[in-house]
Amino acid sequence: MSCVIPFEKIKIAFSRIEESLEKHRQYLNDLDSPIGDSDHGESVCSAFRKVKEVVDKFPEEKRDIGELLQTVGKSIVLSGGAAMGPLYGTAFMDAGKAVAGKEELSPSDLVKMWEAFAGGIKRRGQVELGDKTMYDAIYPSFLALQKAYEEGKSLKEMLEEAIEGARRGMESTKDLVSKRGRSSRLGERSRGHIDPGAASSYFIIEAFLGSLE
User: What's 5-210's CATH class?
Assistant: First the structure.
């Protein structure tokens, strides 16, 4: 198996994200119902439909993964989507800056990119692990990816472990009390519900990284 990720796979990954979010749209709305406005699924699906359009229109002669990711990030910011837009937008723009000029990604490039992605969420959202947000799925994903890389595991294993890290992180939010966003107003009543942002982040990570195998 190749140990590098070509530009084409990154483009395909965004189509997979859009497909996965559409598949889980109602589930994400339902998760948002007890602690939010019941529209998280609509917001992320709308944003990533626009992302797919931008990716499809990306000039064929350009093969800069960093530029593609930054273009995606800007489109998400402009899509609106309440707090979700600036967060995901910043994450993809930071990820793009981390791999600027790259036409393919090595495993170390992928770790650097994913660290920047997680860092963008943390910086823009001013969040910490345990705040019951999307960061609780994203940061464990990065840690798992980094650990697998440092242990010399294959790219396939790195991707699988990063996805599993995101899944565990998402599920951990069920037992947390929300400290950020509208759901934080519920206090203890927010416990017992998976955070919608963490869930959508898991679906995004599963689709994106899963497409790179």
Answer: mainly alpha
